[in-house]
User: Fold this.
Amino acid sequence: YEGLGRITNNNAFLLFAILMAAINTTFHKYTGEDKFVAGTSRINEDGNVTPNVFPVVLEVDKNRSFRDFLLHIREQLIEDFNHQDYPYSRLIEDLQWEDDSDHFPLFSCAVTLEKFNLDMPEINNDIHIHFTNTHELTSVIRYKSSYTGSSLLRFMQHVSHILTMALEDINSKITDLKIFSGDEEQRIIRAGAGNVTDLSQAL
Assistant:
């Protein structure tokens, strides 16, 4: 927590950016995919309290340093927040996508930060990770029944480990950051996963 405060200078926008960086890095480690779409809600700054959400498209380059990735996310968020007033329902119509009761088409995972983001509107996305930053950083996850609490808890533990490694050396390359602690890696190997290239396949 002290490391986060030091690198962000207790700035809510920078904290949100580094959380997005850690989450997207973890998704990259899980899937091997380079492009991710995460959702978020309107930020709490201009007195407009109309609920709205929008997608944030991020590309992960495994050969880029975490510092460079964080700068990329910061610039992308600045651009996206400039368009936060565009109604998500109109965006769905523009893209000619269907907004049905079973699936929200713009994104599956949403990320918000207490006091930085306004409340999410009632949408049917799969996962919502909500962070609170008071005396310590905590998170609450809301999710559909197709997921399990234990798997999402493990995911957040991996996010935390990525974040810890990145804060120890923010110039580390994405490819060198590990989602597993040494103890967890050994536990998975002993359980029979073997020396797989991507141990997240064992989850």
Notes: Residues 193-203 have pLDDT under 50 and may be disordered.
